[in-house]
UniProtKB/TrEMBL annotation:
InterPro entries: Rx_N. This is Disease resistance N-terminal domain-containing protein. The keyword Repeat applies. Belongs to the disease resistance NB-LRR family. The keyword Transcription does not apply. Keywords: Leucine-rich repeat, Nucleotide-binding, Plant defense, Repeat. Pfam families: Rx_N.
Length: 90
C-alpha cells in the first residue's frame, strides 16, 4: 500500500491538497477501468504452457499479481474511508 500512497502523493492521513485529490481520483478511475483487463492478461499469460517456458514472464506475473492485490486493498480502504466519512456526518 505504501507504493500507492507514494504514487498518489497522499499523506497517510489522507490530508492531501485539492489538486492532489483530483489527481488521485483520476488515477483511481483509470485503475478501475483497467482492472478487469489487467486480470484478463494475467489469467491468459499464466497458462502453464506459457509460464513454464519463460521464467522471466513467470516472475513478472507474480509481481503483477502482487500489484493487483495491493491496488484492490487501496481501493477497498478508500471505499471504507468514504463510507466512514458519510456515517460520521450523521
Amino acid at each position: 500500500m505504501e507504493k500507492f500512497y507514494e504514487l498518489f502523493e497522499v499523506d497517510a492521513n489522507i490530508g492531501a491538497r485539492e489538486p492532489d485529490m483530483q489527481y488521485m481520483k483520476e488515477e483511481l478511475e483509470r485503475l478501475r477501468e483497467n482492472h478487469s483487463k489487467i486480470q484478463a492478461v494475467v489469467f491468459a499469460s499464466s497458462q502453464a504452457h506459457i509460464r513454464d517456458h519463460n521464467p522471466a514472464l513467470n516472475k513478472w506475473l507474480w509481481q503483477l499479481r502482487d500489484a493487483i492485490d495491493e491496488a484492490d486493498d487501496v481501493l477497498d480502504e478508500l471505499e471504507y474511508m468514504k463510507y466512514k466519512k458519510i456515517t460520521d456526518k450523521k
